[in-house]
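FIELD: query
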Amino acid sequence: MHITTKLAAALMVATTIVLGLYGYWQLEQERLDLHRSAEDSLRLLGTAVEVAIENAVRDQQIADVQEVLESMDLKDPAVDAFVFDVSGEPTSPLGSPHSLALASALLAESMNTDRAVLRTETSGDVPIIVAAIPLRSDSGARIGTLALTRPLHELQQDLLATRRSIVASIVTLVGVLSLVSWLLIVLYVRRPLTRLAGAMDAVRSGDLTTRVSFTPGDEIGDVGAEFNAMVAKLAEARATLATETESRQALEAGLQRVDKLVTLGQLSAGLAHEIGSPLQVLNGRARALAARSDLASDVRRTVSILAEQSERIARIVDQLLHCTRRRPTRWDTLDLAAVARPIRDLLETEARRRGIRLGFVAQGAIPSILGDADKIQQVVLNLLKNALQVTASGGTVELRLTSAPRGGSPVSDAQLAVEDTGPGISAEAAERIFDPFFTTREASGGTGLGLAVVKSIVTEHFGSIEVHPGSHGGACFSVRFPPAPETLARGLVA
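FIELD: result
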């Protein structure tokens, strides 16, 4: 059921109850007023004929009494009149037996009072007002009683007409109020809520440019304003997230390029070492043979080609060394947590995609270190990527930063540990894990240069790295960096 229907029905029921109670009260007041008017009319009629009846009874003029009663009956046929003597016997009955019985029943009560007595009898289908008026002599002695009865047919007819009028008025008023209330609810409640629901559906579909128009100053307007503010915040958060994602992608691409350059540099260095000397020997012998005149011309031409191509290979290796030669280290005082956290955030999306929980813990006061931020980030990147590649879905990789005390020294190192829940590393592999071109992931395309690069960077920063079994069955790589000189100085002073 729509809210407009519920509100309209509730208002209609409430209006019907209130107007019904008011109509009942008004009808009851009308009944009391009409009944009081009928009693007053009967009392006035009795008072009007009381003197004439008293005179006729005092003079024992029964014919005059009968004449007065008949005259009253002609003027108001609905009224029955009876005159009773002192003993309570009727002397001039003029009316129905039922009215006579009601008058006789009231006569006993009127004997005990000096005032007129009125009562409404409801024993029959139509209520009847019965009045008993004492008749007295000039001395004040009671000489009889005048009884009058009036059926309330007209009162019932008036009340019925009034009831019909009130019911018709209530029905009309309830219908009009219900219609007006429904229209107002549709205009000020249902229509704004429908617009708001449409805007919510648009936002759920990804359209954060949606806004709702509202009339300020009421509760619906406040809801609309809050909704627009919420959508604006969502749009701002999406823009911020997109910017951060682009930054992370750019950082990841840059780190991947650095990794490739480092790998290529080590490969070039290896090539220069391994084939440099043989190339020089080959080129020298080729030049010597080419200078001999006793050889056939085709042989000298072939030897010249060999010399030229060997020189070409040497130039290519030299160019590789020139392009990948490592730049000088930029030494800065670094907060290890501030350097490592962006790399963890960078790889969090990949970890979620693989179904791996990537944790980050920084415990205690970690000493500052001296180092190159880019190279330290390269260490963190290589260690985390290796851990993610060997960890199955549902596993955990954790990056921990702690302060590691030195044995027998008040100085503490900054320790970086990467622990995974992968298959672990055998003792034989652990001895060669940092050697160039040694890998335990040949089937998945490992080159064996990532950990070699890590080892060289850590060594360059006067640190140390080791691998040992993790607490959950995987492997744990621990890297220790010495504190920066100023941190070391603070520790010595303390």
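FIELD: remark
The chain has three domains: 13-155, 256-324, 332-493.
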